[in-house]
Design goal:
9 helices, mainly alpha, two-stranded antiparallel sheet
């Protein structure tokens, strides 16, 4: 009978993920995303028109929460200043920290979680390209918004151009407001903490972090409420596509693994570092990797005949 595992320890120590292959991959994807984000600047007039259209829709639906929040953040520095620090820093610190945590302690879930995040990010880039949007803070003053990042710039490293450090405003695309990946990435972090944190503190952070981030992006006048909704929708689309992207990536990289190792990934004797669907124990036994279909709500696939071959542990035969 197969042995059961304690929740939260699902064979993580057995997965042979390599940081020196993961880190360059993440850096490459982020560099492509940043470069593409800069290239997708769009026309300023169109961006302003799109921003005003979003604002009109929100007013009709009475969901323009960014107006009262921005007034609060502008009038109360003890709220506005911490919010600016939140916006300018946590987006770039919390997400990488959770990626590293998953890699080190939840390795069996890491690969699909990473693919989900990257897939959603590229979908967001498509949104920036097709719908350049002027954020509330860049609309004319008659629309009632104040750029809190500019108002409180003396407190931090940013200037008057979003969260970019002073003098580096040209390195950011200020019209990439739709969708809000600040909210999207925060939602991804919340899901990871909720599913794999295992403690009450982690589950509390899983709720607080995306919720506060949503309030912050509106209160600082960096995003509309519908930008936040679109950010959540992008993450949902990425969640659905992540298993497909994972399978395609494995199919594309399989010839390279055969070329450099001389052993097919499906071979029972393949080393753990090149077996995409399994891992090895210290005794050299091949253990089928747990499927990641749970992210997409899919059913757990039944064991294939190859899983019960010579390389399978005795308990699984």
């Amino acid at each position: 009978m197969p042995q059961t595992e304690t929740p939260g320890t699902e064979a993580a120590p057995l997965i042979r993920l390599r940081w020196w292959t993961e880190l360059p991959l993440i850096v490459l994807v982020y560099a492509c995303y940043s470069a593409g984000r800069l290239l997708a600047r769009g026309d300023v007039t169109s961006a302003v028109d799109h921003g005003l259209a979003i604002l009109r829709v929100e007013k009709v639906l009475r969901i323009n929460a960014e107006h009262p929040l921005n007034r609060l953040f502008t009038s109360e520095a003890w709220i506005g200043v911490p919010a600016d620090f939140w916006y300018a820093s946590l987006h770039y610190l919390v997400t990488p920290a959770i990626l590293v945590w998953l890699f080190r302690s939840r390795a069996v879930h890491y690969r699909l979680a990473r693919t989900w995040l990257m897939t959603s990010t590229f979908i967001g880039l498509i949104g920036f390209t097709l719908l350049p949007t002027c954020p509330p803070r860049l609309l004319s003053s008659g629309h009632g918004f104040v750029d809190t990042m500019a108002q409180y710039s003396s407190y931090g490293w940013w200037g008057g151009e979003a969260s970019a450090p002073r003098g580096l405003g040209g390195m950011t695309n200020q019209y990439a407001a739709m969708p809000s990946l600040h909210v999207g990435w925060a939602l991804w972090c919340g899901v990871m903490l909720w599913k794999y944190g295992g403690t009450r503190t982690a589950k509390t952070a899983a709720i607080v972090y995306p919720l506060v981030t949503t309030i912050v992006v509106m209160g600082t006048a960096n995003h509309y409420f519908l930008d936040a909704v679109a950010g959540a929708a992008v993450m949902g689309a990425g969640l659905l596509l992540a298993p497909v992207v994972t399978r395609y990536a494995q199919r594309v990289t399989a010839p390279m693994r055969v070329r450099f190792t001389g052993v097919a990934a499906s071979s029972p004797g393949a080393p753990a570092s090149i077996v995409s669907d399994g891992c090895q124990t210290s005794a050299g036994e091949h253990i089928p990797r747990q499927r990641d279909s749970q992210f997409a709500g899919g059913a757990e696939p039944s064991a294939s005949p190859a899983d019960a071959g010579d390389g399978a542990p005795a308990a699984a035969r």
